């Protein structure tokens, strides 16, 4: 049976979000109907909303959902009605990457999550007045009071878990922590550089404090964010409006360089500088995504002494393994994600977007209060 609900719809590229009534399709056997409690807003949502990535409009976006299961498809085994869940990306479960434990590199990742707007068979999950609406964003489209989610993108959490704090675990927090834990894997005494003190970068900071790294350097242009980075465990900060990034890293490391770098800004210039700060056998992780076609020149001879540059999607995380660990750390007070979060009502989504674009908030999270008319 289909579900009528309210969603934040982007009518056309750059048009912003407008609340509108939509209809969700009947559940497939491997799908879950979730009543949303909270949803984080990510820069990927905003990039698609402004038309920077190809996605069918009108559209319902949102990919850091958290809520309560209302119904499940016939073959679903991970969750049941009444469970609290977090939503993340979807994957096929059949390709080589999925079988190897790296579903973030699934062969179907782009059409299934980012640019398709439909299920892989081409069918729509959302419609309005008889016309299809772009949906199935990251297998969920959670900027709505209800969402259809693929079972592979659903993770159960405990009944008392604070969903309005945990919602960002499904993308931003998982990406930052995964960059450090799954890719850099700092050795004792390592130095880590993190460029960009947004939600992903600050999550990387928190993750790095749980490793044997002894120096955690954070670079940003916003003083308040650098202060927060220090409070979260950064040993050194660089205000790039006042100091040159490469020079300061050289000074802090005695020109040795950093063992690992996590680049979250999406700036080609910052990425090029980050690569140039690498020590011998150092690794730079590309997290921030610039425009398609962006190229960064690399000195081949500089790379020969074992330096690495690696791209990263969603922390290279297997969500059933990592997300419950992250949730447990948040609940235990060891991963203070709440320091990044500012809450907004669902109908304040426009203000939340303005605030994050202005740098006034780090991680906006929408709260879905019970609607007046069901």
TrEMBL record:
One family name in Pfam for this protein: ADH_zinc_N
Keyword ATP-binding attached: no
InterPro entries: ADH-like_C, ADH-like_N, ADH_Zn_CS, ER, GroES-like_sf, NAD(P)-bd_dom_sf
GO molecular function, one term: oxidoreductase activity
Family recorded in the similarity comment: Belongs to the zinc-containing alcohol dehydrogenase family.
Cofactor(s), by name: Zn(2+)
PANTHER family: GROES-LIKE ZINC-BINDING ALCOHOL DEHYDROGENASE FAMILY PROTEIN, NAD-DEPENDENT ALCOHOL DEHYDROGENASE
Name of the molecule in the record: Aryl-alcohol dehydrogenase
Keywords for this protein: Metal-binding, Oxidoreductase, Zinc
Gene3D superfamilies xref list: Medium-chain alcohol dehydrogenases, catalytic domain, NAD(P)-binding Rossmann-like Domain
Domain Enoyl reductase (ER): 14-366
Superkingdom of origin organism: Bacteria
